[in-house]
Amino acid sequence: MGIISRGFRGRPRDDHGRLPPGQYQVHDFPVLSAGPTPRIEQDRWEFAIDTEAGQTHRWSWQELMALPQESPTADIHCVTKWSKFDTTWQGVSLDVLFEDVETAAEYALVHSYGGYTTNLPLEDLLDGKAWICHRFDGEELEPQHGGPARLVVPHLYFWKSAKWVRGIRLLNEDWPGFWESAGYHNYGDPWREQRYEGD
Amino acid sequence: MIRWRRARLTAAREESPTARTLVFEVPDWPGHLAGQHVDVRLTAPDGYTAQRSYSLATPEGVELTVEGLPDGEVSSYLVDELTVGDEIELRGPVGGWFVWRPAVTTPVLLVAGGSGIVPLMAMIRARRLAGGDTPFHLVYSLREPARRYYAAELDAPDPWLTITWVHTRLAPHRRITKDDLPGPGPDVFVCGPTGFVEAAADLLLDVGHDSARIRTERFGG
Question: pLDDT per residue over A96-108, tens digit each?
Answer without folding.
Answer: 999 999 999 999 9
